[in-house]
């Protein structure tokens, strides 16, 4: 598997365990070190062959890995980076798998300012309303987008930009936009990024390179805001027992509301500026739609539905 012979995965929940399982599937000779604070989780991972060795805490064993994936809640990523750095110097690539990036990248830049380690933000756009190692799925990343945000030294600029909502442009996914980011990286960062992209492709996922601030804006639209809407739809129901009548449409729209509340609290608050902006825009959308209904304006409601259908079909 390219230049990675030994990989550590910190956190063996749904994402971490699924990643370890997927790595073993594509290369059984790869050595996987697992770290998790639950002994039962480590035993399950060892028994099922997802990892070769397991530890309840971060130890010097991780210094032998070329690549460390950090698959813990967003609020804990910074402390994990600090723990790894405190073990001593090592030429390693650290990649987090959190759902927001600006604050994580800023923390990584500060902690690793004098380090030989390289940090690249990562976010597989894959998941489930289930959690924990029992929900492991080695095919979780296949055909999924896998966003990478390299350049921890760009974090301070991204942090300042994150408080100014910029227009979303399809050009941010262009090769020229990707090259602009890569041109600001050191040669070591470029080499690690190349290897990491190839690894992601081997997993069956589709790598995309974005600035951290762009990532947080886009995932607000595609993941974090939909989660709030899903939860709102469930909370809107006056009596839980009427959910027995729900069809597949309602079930599809509210599936993610069953995800871990504690995990999602971290995600939502780490991207709250973008979410406030979206909530404001959505309130206006709903107010406009309400007026169309009050006015019995079938023509404009039809246009509203047609616009959504056309975007979805694209």
What does this structure look like?
There is one protein chain. This protein has helices at residues 14-26, 39-47, 77-86, 102-111, 155-161, 175-182, 187-202, 212-236, 248-254, 261-270, 272-294, 298-313; strands at 6-10, 31-35, 53-55, 67-70, 93-96, 118-124, 145-150, 206-209. With 314 residues, it is α/β, with parallel strands linked by helices. Helix 3 (77-86) runs parallel beside helix 4 and helix 8 packs across helix 11. The longest helix is centred in the C-terminal third of the chain and has 25 residues, at 212-236. It is globular, with a radius of gyration of 21 Å.
Features:
Prephenate dehydrogenase; prephenate dehydrogenase (NADP+) activity; oxidoreductase; 6-phosphogluconate dehydrogenase C-terminal fold; Rossmann fold; globular; 49% helix; 314 residues; alpha/beta; single chain; eight-stranded mixed beta sheet; 6-PGluconate_DH-like_C_sf; 2 domains; signal
Number of strands: 8
Fraction in helix: 40-55%
The N- and C-terminal alpha carbons lie at a distance of 35 Å
Instruction: Please outline the major beta sheet.
Output: 8 strands, mixed
CATH class of the largest domain reads Alpha Beta
CATH topology of the largest domain: the name is Rossmann fold
Number of helical regions: 12
The succession of helices and strands, N to C, reads EHEHEEHEHEEHHHEHHHHH
């Amino acid at each position: 598997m390219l230049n990675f012979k030994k990989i550590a995965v910190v956190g063996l929940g749904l994402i971490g365990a699924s990643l370890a399982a997927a790595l073993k599937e594509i290369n059984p000779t790869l050595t996987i070190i697992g770290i998790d604070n639950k002994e039962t989780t480590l035993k399950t991972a060892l028994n099922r062959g997802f990892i070769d060795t397991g530890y309840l805490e971060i130890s010097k064993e991780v210094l032998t890995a070329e690549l460390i994936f950090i698959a813990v809640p967003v609020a804990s990523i910074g402390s994990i980076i600090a723990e790894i750095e405190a073990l001593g110097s090592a030429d390693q690539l650290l990649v987090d798998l959190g759902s927001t990036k600006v604050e994580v990248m800023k923390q990584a830049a500060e902690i690793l300012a004098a380090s030989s380690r390289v940090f690249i933000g990562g976010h597989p756009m894959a998941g489930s309303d289930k959690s924990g190692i029992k929900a492991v799925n080695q095919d979780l990343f296949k055909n999924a987008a896998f966003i990478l945000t390299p350049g921890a030294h760009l974090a301070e600029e991204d942090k300042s930009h994150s408080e100014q909502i910029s227009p979303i442009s399809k050009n941010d996914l262009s090769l020229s936009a990707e090259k602009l980011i890569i041109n600001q990286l050191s040669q070591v960062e470029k080499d690690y990024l190349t290897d990491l992209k190839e690894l992601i492709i081997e997993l069956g996922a589709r790598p995309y390179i974005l600035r951290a601030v762009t990532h947080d804006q886009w995932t607000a639209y595609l993941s974090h805001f939909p989660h709030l809407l899903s939860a709102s739809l469930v909370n809107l129901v006056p009596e839980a027992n009427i959910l027995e009548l729900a069809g597949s449409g309602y079930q599809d729209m509210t599936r993610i509301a069953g995800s871990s509340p504690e995990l999602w609290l971290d995600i939502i608050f780490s991207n709250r500026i973008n979410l406030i902006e979206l909530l404001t825009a959505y309130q206006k959308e709903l107010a406009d739609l309400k007026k169309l209904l009050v006015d019995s304006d079938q023509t404009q409601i039809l246009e509203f539905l047609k616009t959504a259908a056309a975007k979805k079909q694209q």
